[in-house]
What does this fold into?
Amino acid sequence: MSTVTIARAGNIAIVTVDNPPVNALSQAVRQGLWDAVATLDAEAEVTAVVLHCAGRTFIAGADVREFGKVPEPPHLPDLVARIEGAAKPWVAAIHGAALGGGLEVALGCRFRVAGTGASLGLPEVNLGIIPGASGTVRTPRLTGLPAAVALVTSGKPVRAEKALTLGLIDAVIEGDLLEGAIAFAEKALAKPLPQPVSARVITPEDDAFWDGQRVAVTKAAKGNNARCARWTRSALHPRTTLQRPWHSSAKPSSRCAARIRRRLCGQYSLPNAPRPVPHIWGCQTRRHPLGRGDRRRHDGRRHCRGFARCGPAGCADRA
It folds into this structure.
């Protein structure tokens, strides 16, 4: 059974993601959405697309079954950019939770509507990582910098009503969400379309704002390594991402997220190990619970070059 299907309601196409239990962004889902863009762009009678999810929630994030594996294309940042660049405007119809990559997919749509009980957020920081598919650079273009920094650094989701106030979504739908999203799309087509999120301008903040945010994030993360305040500050620094033009901010943001994931990719547990084994970039710094202070060296090399290539048997980057 396909995880992504296409239906029609007049001139409005309905793309439905059905990947139980939480519609995670598996490779099959990413490929299905990638192909749906091409299919619907080629159909002249389609004027808009509604992205809808079956089950109890919108896309609730990445597929945990793919963690620790080599990522397979299409990659999420490319998919988000492809949806945003589609010839037909996409409307994300959000129910349940749109978290992490799910929210980033919604940010790639031209419009976002949500049911009354929906929640939206970027919780990656609670896992020790940051949004890696343009969440850090698209969010401030909708909400402004103060709200975006709060969303990214706290990891706390917001309810639909709050998201509407922030500008993260365009409407809250009462009643049937899919019918409301179709009606919203038809109404939106009667007006000039807004700019894609990536084309919108961020209102800059002064140095005092950033200094205050650095202090606040560091204080909130004190004693909580998973909050990784330093990396989050790095991702949100105005000279690296948020206040730079889109073409020079999206890629550095994704690279920063990938670098953090590489540094944490070795946090696996060996059999009977009481806690995750820290793998801090280089194999020489990976400590194993095989004995106090035991360290495995990597054929005389100092660093691992690969991502998700190391396992309990040692580093796979031996060539």
Notes: The longest strand covers residues 4-9.
